[in-house]
Amino acid sequence: MGVGEDFKLFCENLTVNNRSDISDRYETITQRLNTDFWLSNSKTNHSLYVGSYGRGTARRGFSDLDMIFILPYSLYERYSKYAYNGQSALLQVVKNSIKNRYSATDVSGDGQVVVVSFSDSMRFEVVPAFENTDYSFTYPDSNAGGEWKITNPRPEIESININNIFTKGNLVNLCRMTRVWKTYWNVPMGGLLIDTLACKFLTNWSYKEKSYVYYDWMVRDFFKYLANQNPQQEYWLAVGSNQFIWRKGLFEYKAKVCLNLSLEAIEYESKQMIWSANKKWREIYGTTFPA
Description:
Helix content is 49%, strand content 15%. It is an alpha+beta fold. Strand 3 and strand 4 form a beta hairpin. It is elongated, with a radius of gyration of 21 Å. It starts with a helix and ends in a 6-residue tail after the last helix. The mean pLDDT is 96.
């Protein structure tokens, strides 16, 4: 196969293939919470996929699924009046509700979320939240005595969706490929930072609408973009929402190493040495990339 076919197969193998299981669990959790907090039997109301799955950039085999469940505002008024850590009390109430449905499943509170850990290693992280007039969300953080925080995922989701259309689907593929690199190279980057930098890079890239044949160049140029980030920069502004994304660690050096590997791969491709080129791509992405 040629470089275009190899990258096409690579990306196809990164698409999430357990959407039915995810949907079933999402709806079961939503229905349970709606029953307890809204006196409703709905499986979809008051819930929202967020995180990488909500933005459409999760890769096959991902384990943590983030969802927001919107609670009645009266509960915010109640728990914000607590003298100490009403946020923890609210998380406990939500945890107990989910536990009533999943009595044999590990359900625990974890600072800002209720974690539902299934036996197949899938984790649902449920964020109980209150919707604000600007469509952002107020959510509880029970750490350090408790406080209320704001998150605004809808503009992030919308921006990724719009720019993925603008780039003919290349943005989501780049985000998923970069997640493979992150895991294989143990790169300290969160998913929102990956999506933000991929979006900022690709929307200004000359070949953003081109096919898989250009993916070797896309990867090369994105690694160059990552390698040229300022290692002193402490945070970035998230795409869509402009929320702060704080640096988790240095990633620039590993990006530079993989830039050089991609240059070697492209050199092999120019000589029709496809096996040797793919060997270099596998040094970047591991065995997920076709041999």
